[in-house]
Amino acid sequence: MKKWLLALSLLSVSAFAEDAVEPVLSAGDTAWMMMSTALVMLMTPIGLALFYSGMTRSKNVVNTYAMVFGAFVIAFIAWVIAGFSIAFGTMEGPMNQVIGGFGHLMLSGISWSEFASVDLGQLYPKLVFVVFQGTFAAITVAIAAGSVIERMKFSTWMVFAFIWTIVVYAPITHMVWGGGYLFNEGALDFAGGTVVHMNGGLAGLVLALLIGKRAGYPKTAMKPASVVLTAVGAGLLWFGWYGFNGGSAFGANAIAGLAYMTTTVAAAVATVTWIIVEYAVFKKPTLLGAATGAIAGLVAITPAAGFVDVSGAFIIGAVGALIAFFGVTVLKKKLGYDDSLDAFGVHFLAGLWGAVATGIFALNDKGLLWDGPLKGSDDRMGQIMVQLESVLVVGMFTLIGTIVVYYIAMALTGGSRVNEEQESQGLDESVHGERGFNL
After folding, report:
1. How far apart are CA 163 and CA 77, in angstroms?
2. Which residue stretches of 302-379 are H helix?
3. In degrees rounded to 5, what are phi and psi of residue 307?
4. Is the dihedral of CA 83, 87, 93, 95 positive or negative?
5. How far is C-alpha 82 from the geometric centre of its chain's CA atoms?
6. What pLDDT does 366 receive?
């Protein structure tokens, strides 16, 4: 659905017109998109779940994992029921600037043999595209869970995740990727800097502010249950990110290869940057810091992965780590909000930087930016302004939408927060009747 795909599809579309032959399934692209989908799926119920679980206190490990796992399954169900139709459907009239319509509810009208998009040269099953995009929806809402870990009711969270996927995530996806307002403005977001990371990170902060701080925060020490689990989770997230960014090329092609390279460079540079800064400030290079730095770099490069070269990725990764480090260690303390696992500091702030940096470092190459503001001229400031507009629009929509959905979920479940006894005991045993570690 990216604009630069128009360039890649021109030859294939003209060939279809000249030869008057039916398009044929691309086995290579189909295999690549199915593999990419599996990689992105791995990121949420395994990678992110381990990353978050390791950072939480040992009495809440099971609950943390359950909230991420639960977010994945409930968001995907919401995606199939209505999310995909709202995000990628088509409808006439001004409302198409925000939503795609309701013509594909429960995926009605989509045949098992239908291609993703013949016009764009996407000759793989459309149902694979649906699943691929559904995994993006799932990880976005799961990111937000990191801000309210250890105090939000599991029932409220599940209701929130379902409604939010349809009401907030799907319209934003349509506006940026599905032919809506920001898409038409020329906003660039290769794999989800605004759609996923800014969106999920800001939703997390809004939830944290609405539900309040954990008991004892910030005076009580809240040490991670297992830094090793977090590092393993970070490694799995990095691995899955190749499907996240590489798959967003929508084919086994050169742009996917570019995304592979820029993703690796940005993550590696961000990891080293975080370690150096952490050592300079605190005199200790921590594994938790290294893992967090890697994620910050991956987040920052996501909107730019298929649009920039290695030098751009290098700068985006380094600055992304610096901004996330500032958010986690300075901004959070200064403002006093309780973002349990730093979803806002890492995902929103690094994602915001990546979105703007895409306009700064995007290559002036019509193969990558077919009909964007950079076509035919290096209108750098014009593209940066469009990127800033996308940041503002997504931010406002997420802010207002998340508040509305939170109060709906709270009303439907009789409150959003666990009681004091449950919070003190830990949610693993008090809510789930299980323990993360039986040592």
Report:
1. 11
2. 310-326, 332-335, 343, 349-361
3. -120, -10
4. positive
5. 19
6. 73
Q: Residue 40 and residue 20: Cα distance in Å, rounded?
A: 36
Residue boundaries of the structural domains of the chain: 5-432
Contact 190, 2 (CB under 8 A): yes
**262: number of CA atoms within 13 Å, CB side?**
33
CB neighbourhood size of 411 (10 A): 12
Per-residue pLDDT band at 1 (split at 50, 70, 90)? very low
Question: What are the beta bridge partners of residue 417?
Answer: 152
DSSP secondary structure, 13-42, as one string: HHHHHHHT------HHHHHHHHHHHHHHHH
The alpha carbons of the chain give a radius of gyration, in whole angstroms, of 21
User: Could you tell me how far CA 235 lies from the centroid of its own chain?
Assistant: 17
What does the CA dihedral 96, 99, 105, 106 come to, rounded to 10 degrees? 130
Return the structure tokens found at 430. Answer: 């008090």
Residue 384: is it exposed, middle or buried by C-beta count within 10 angstroms (0-12/13-18/19+)? Answer: middle
| CATH superfamily to which 5-432 belongs | Ammonium transporter AmtB like domains (1.10.3430.10)
pTM reported for the whole predicted model: 0.93
pLDDT mean over 5-15: 40
Q: Residue holding tokens 């319209």?
A: 171
Tracing tokens 């070269």 back to the chain, one arrives at: 309
